[in-house]
Design brief:
By secondary structure, the chain is an alpha/beta fold. Helix content is 60%, strand content 12%. Among the domains are: 212 residues, P-loop containing nucleotide triphosphate hydrolases (Rossmann fold), CATH 3.40.50; 61 residues, no CATH class. It is built from 21 helices and 12 strands. 24% of the residues are buried.
């Protein structure tokens, strides 16, 4: 049993380190039942405090937290036709003028607000639409009705101010137009006087009509003069023809003769009619031509007939007399036409001179008339503009239309009151939970078996209320330990965290239970072992070979030896006894040790990998679970290497 373990120390340590890193710690750092018990035990206080915090939160949110309500009114800007191209920039300028001090002063006066203009301005926010001509005016106040009233009043004041500005601008336009009208009327009077003076100087009524009349008169006179010339030439030709005919006609002719040919008498009558027509008409006249053709035809008939004359009467020639009369008439008519043509030529020359004079004056008159018309048009335009501007001034508009009035908001901007009302009881609940939890966990003490298993990284064979609690707790812990140790042989050390007899008492109870089962078990108390030599401390006493010799004797009597060691207050003594032990069972009283003590338990005792187990005693009843009281794999992590010794050779003497 106590043979030397020839395994190198380095390999054993490396294997232990590797296995410990691969294995998961058993148990939990904090038993959740402790937290639940700490809260449940104070449930009445928790409920009362949460209800009280709810009342305080509701009162605080309703009466102490300042609420802010916001209301928004929206106006639409409709740019006038003469607005500048950059309408967005003009709209931004108008939006900045919403919060002018004059507007804010009117709002403060209208609503009788006891605040400064700076404070009122800070409560107002003006925003522009991204892709629209909308302006949103938001106002905040402690009361919803006041917020809506401020927003609507500011919008009304702003729209009225813009309307007044538009009316003032139109009034200024009317004044400027009237001033320009006075100057234009003076210019028009000067132009009209210059035109009238020109007309008086040139004796002109309507120049264009008179020029046209003069031109038409010249044309008419020229036509009349030309017609007189043509008629004079025609009369001269006819007069010469008649003179020739008169000179050729005989002075005496047969006045009468008797002929049997009717053609001749007919020819004479036609010739007489022809002579009369030639005296009155031109040679190209259709009547003359017709008579000449008739004469020619009758002559042809007469030549063919050749009538015979039976008797003749000779008398003065009537043809010659007729031709002489016609020549005299034509001569008188020709002289009359010559006089008329001379008069027409003189009148035409005068008309041409007047037309030339009027034409020469037409350019100057046209310039004067154009100036007159321009000045008259400018005056008419100004009169129309003045009338339009006066109408616009009477019905001046701001260009803004209220599309949405501000309504009293049903809820504040930020529900701070409700948040506070909900946060105070919630925070109270959280703080109370944290407080009750910390009250249970502080000071840092390990109470349950799962906590001890986690922090010590060692198996807990049993968790019990022993040495307190009912009797079955004692029977249960003894039975469980006897079950674990029944099939084992070797030396098992037993110690406690604090001074006491729990380890000895428990060892004796287990030994008696094993003896009842027929398993030999010896118990030895090594807490006050005398020193075999002088000047030796307790650790050196525990390392002495005499301890091994005594244990060897006990092993000869029983296969299992339970060694009661000093408490862990003397950890060096327990560490020194490690060389004689196959395993160490630590009795851990509930709430007697802290997590950091258990965390360093293995390294303090020298059991880096196996050989260490615990029994947690004195556990409160509310931490005891009937389902499981053992934690960790005790068979694999405690007894897997039972019987193996540390790599320290020991020599005994007989």
């Amino acid at each position: 049993m106590f043979d030397v373990n020839d395994q190198p120390e380095e390999q054993r340590v490396a294997r232990a380190s590797s296995d410990s890193t691969e294995e998961k710690r058993p148990g939990f750092p904090v038993d959740p039942r402790r937290v639940l018990y700490g809260i449940r035990s104070k449930a009445t206080w928790l409920v009362l405090l949460v209800v009280l915090a709810g009342v305080v939160g509701a009162g605080t949110g309703k009466y102490l937290i300042r609420k802010q309500y916001s209301a928004t009114a929206t106006v639409l800007w409709e740019p006038p036709p003469e607005a500048r191209a950059d309408a967005n920039r003009e709209l931004a300028t108008l939006a900045q003028s919403v919060k002018l001090p004059t507007n804010l002063s009117r709002v403060r006066e209208n609503l009788a607000l006891p605040t400064t203009l700076e404070a009122l301005a800070s409560r107002i926010d003006v925003k522009l639409g991204q892709q629209s001509m909308l302006i949103s005016v938001s106002a905040s106040a402690k009361e919803p009705d006041e917020a809506a009233a401020v927003a609507n009043s500011l919008v009304e004041v702003f729209v009225a101010a813009q309307r007044d500005l538009a009316a003032d601008r139109l009034t200024e336009v009317v004044t400027a137009l009237r001033s320009s009208l006075a100057e234009s009327e003076r210019a028009l009077a000067a132009s009209r006087k210059a035109y009238d003076d020109f007309r008086s100087a040139n004796r002109i009524g309507d120049l264009s009509v008179e020029v046209q009349s003069a031109i038409e008169e010249v044309a008419r006179l020229r036509v009349a003069s030309n017609n007189a010339r043509v008629e004079l030439e025609e009369l001269t030709a006819r007069e010469a023809s008649l003179r020739a005919s008169r000179d050729a006609a005989p002075g005496k002719v047969v006045s009468s003769e008797t002929q049997e040919d009717p053609v001749t008498s007919r020819l004479a009558a036609v010739e007489a009619e022809l002579a009369q027509a030639q005296a009155r008409l031109t040679a190209d006249h259709p009547r003359v031509r017709a008579l000449e053709a008739q004469v020619a035809a009758l002559r042809g008939q007469r030549n063919e007939a050749n009538p015979a004359v039976t008797s003749r009467v000779v008398a003065r020639s009537s043809v010659r007399d007729s031709l002489a009369t016609q020549v005299a008439e034509l001569s008188a008519l020709r002289k009359s036409i010559e006089q008329r043509k001379l008069t027409l030529d003189q009148v035409t020359e005068g008309a041409e001179q007047r037309a030339a004079h009027l034409t020469a004056a037409e350019a100057e008159a046209a310039q004067l008339l154009a100036n007159l018309k321009v000045d008259q048009g400018h005056v008419d335009s100004l009169l129309q503009k003045i009338a339009t501007a006066e109408d616009d001034a009477r019905v001046a508009t701001s260009g803004f239309q209220v599309v949405s009035k501000a309504m009293p908001p049903p809820w504040p901007d930020k529900p701070t009151g409700r948040i506070v009302a909900a946060a105070i009881p919630l925070a109270t609940l959280v703080l109370m939970l944290v407080g009750f939890t910390l009250r249970e966990l502080l000071p840092l003490r390990v109470k349950g078996g799962n906590e001890a298993a986690f922090w010590a990284n060692a198996p807990v064979l049993w968790t019990t209320a022993w040495p307190a609690g009912p009797e079955h707790e004692t029977r249960d812990v003894v039975r469980e330990l006897a079950d674990v140790l029944e099939q084992r042989e070797g030396v098992v050390g037993m110690t406690t965290f604090r001074k006491g007899d729990e380890a000895l008492e428990l060892a004796e109870l287990v030994a008696r239970r094993l003896e009842r089962r027929g398993v030999g078990c010896a118990v030895t108390d090594e807490r006050n072992r005398p020193a075999p030599e002088t000047d030796m401390d307790a650790a050196e006493v525990m390392e002495h070979r005499s301890v091994g010799a005594d244990l060897e004797l006990l092993r000869g009597e029983a296969p299992l030896v339970l060694v009661v060691l000093p408490p862990l207050d003397e950890a060096s003594v327990v560490r020194a006894a490690r060389r004689w032990l196959d395993g160490l069972l630590v009795v851990v009283p509930s709430a007697a040790s802290g997590p950091f003590e258990l965390l360093s338990l293995r390294s303090a005792l020298g059991f880096e990998r196996t050989g260490l187990a615990m029994v947690v005693t004195g556990v409160p009843a509310w931490l005891l679970s009937p389902a499981s009281r053992a934690f960790g794999d005790s068979v694999r992590t405690w007894f897997r290497e039972v019987g193996e010794r540390p790599t320290v050779r020991r020599h005994t003497t007989g």
